[in-house]
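Schema walk-through. Below, the input block comes first and the output block second. Nothing else is stored per chain. Lengths vary across the set, and this one has 246 residues.
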Amino acid sequence: MKLAHFRFYEELNEFLPEEKRKTSFSYEFGGKPSVKDAIEALGVPHVEVDLILVNGESVDFAYNLKNGDNISVYPVFEGLDITPLIRLREKPLRKVKFILDAHLGRLAKYLRLCGFDTLFSNRFSDPEIVDISEKEKRIILTRDRGILKNNRVTHGYWIRSQIHEEQLKEVLTRFDLKDQIRFFTRCIRCNSPLEDVKKEDIAERLEEKTRLYYSSFKRCPGCNRIYWSGSHFENMKRLITQIING
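--- output ---
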């Protein structure tokens, strides 16, 4: 058997057992596995990795491990230009769109409230999520690390927190989306973009106090739900603003 020595940096350590975090450790292997296979065997999804240095030189995922290699693995760099090196992460998608797994229903509603195109169904299987992500160029958000190890996945992120509000902040920060938030533009139930609608066209569907106090309305062309800037909406908007600034 041969040995390589790995060191993972920053948030990539969250995927490792305690004894392997923030330290160099040995990895035993046979044959000529790729560095990608070794990284994922250690528990780190490839979509979370942005740079690999082997003996001080940047390599791609196809590099085959050699006995005695010293390997440093780095996460996504948002504020540092590493273009002279071999950057492993796919370039950001031109248009940000998400697909979420069955554990993230509340996060899906928050993202839709912020105006982001977000597919969610608790009936989606992992293969369906991968298929849709590949076909529609959607970023996979998941609490399941395994799905991100699929070779067909090019854009994805493992949600660390189990607290809904913290999950939203993770996504907005990770993908630098705080300046792209557009409240009141997408249906939180079915994800369709909302359309302006005249009050007189939907007056019979409104309660008396709503007709009296509100004049601006939107309608979802997908599920026909009516929206207006009432107290519930304002409270949700205030909550998300606090999450962003907190």
